[in-house]
Amino acid sequence: MRLIYNLCLVVLFLLGWGGNAAAGELSEHLANFPQWNKLTSVQPASGDLVYPEWMAGTWKVTSTLIDLAAPLAPDIITPGFESNRKQLNQPVSFLVRFIKEKQPVINSLKFIPKIDNQSPILVADRAFNSLNLAKAYLGDEAVLSVKVDPDNPNRQITFLRGERQLVSIVTSRGTETISDGKFITAEVFQQLFKGGSRPYFNSVESTTAYHKLATSNPKIEADQVTAVYLSPQDPDYFQAGSRPVALYRYRLEFYPEELSNPPEE
């Protein structure tokens, strides 16, 4: 169960963003940590997930868990929460990349995708990024591959040893632009783990404030909070209501790939 829960957390970081949230809601959401409730203004996820131009290329990301909370403890505590305290202040590094591609457009008459003459958009190389992230947290031997649905960039499957799978679907998202080089994103996921004694469901929200730095290293930094909510299949679902059962706060630092070793603090 601990492996299932940890994997549900690590696949979230690099699926992307899009849409608009109510002005200020995401900023307030982060500021209220750990007093959280579910977001209300995110929109249904549709189409590919667009990143700002200054994230193009390959990066070495260092992710550090800096805080965690179980708002409904001791009544409800998620599997693996206590063991995850060992990850506090322990940096984990992995490579990610962001690439240009043509934006698909849906033909309203035939309901088939086509490519128009719009400029390419910047998107995550989702299979590459998610595979590197999962291996960094779970180990090279535990993770076999990651497959992104060619017809739906919001759906991906992580394949594990032992014929186990994690299906992760982005259901809604939103963004909040503060200024050039600084913005906030929120993504809501439904996740299904298959291959255990019984299927395991949950709902996860990841809210991240990204900041492009002018001249210092790292080049990009981010404040990220991942919130775990119970699914309707859980017997404690109605007791939890709109409140998360676990919260994890991370500091993310993006270094250009050519910087093989980030500077020491």
Describe the overall structure.
This protein has one domain (2-256). 12% of the residues lie in helices and 42% in strands. It contains 4 helices and 13 strands. It has helices at residues 2-10, 25-31, 126-138, 237-240; strands spanning 43-44, 57-69, 92-101, 104-106, 113-115, 121-124, 143-148, 155-160, 164-179, 182-194, 200-212, 220-229, 246-256. Strands 1, 2, 3, 6, 7, 8, 9, 10, 11, 12 and 13 form an 11-stranded antiparallel β-sheet that branches. The model is unreliable at 13-19 and 106-111 (pLDDT under 50).
**N-to-C series of helices and strands:** HHEEEEEEHEEEEEEHE
**Poorly predicted runs of 5 or more residues:** 13-19, 106-111
| Proportion of strand residues | 35-45%
Q: How many domains would you count in the coordinates?
A: 1
The count of β-strands is: 13
Number of helical segments with 4 or more residues: 4
What general form does the structure show? globular
- How many whole angstroms does the radius of gyration measure? 18 Å
Helix/strand-derived category reads mainly beta
State the share of residues found in helices, binned by percent.
10-25%
Largest sheet: 11 strands, antiparallel
Distance between the termini: 35 Å
Mean pLDDT across all amino acids: 81
Concise account of the structure shown:
12% of the residues lie in helices and 42% in strands. The protein is mainly beta and 265 residues long.
List the helices and strands and how they pair.
Layout: H1 2-10, H2 25-31, E1 43-44, E2 57-69, E3 92-101, E4 104-106, E5 113-115, E6 121-124, H3 126-138, E7 143-148, E8 155-160, E9 164-179, E10 182-194, E11 200-212, E12 220-229, H4 237-240, E13 246-256
Antiparallel strand pairs: 1-9, 2-3, 2-13, 3-6, 4-5, 7-8, 8-9, 9-10, 10-11, 11-12, 12-13
Helix pairs in contact: 1-3
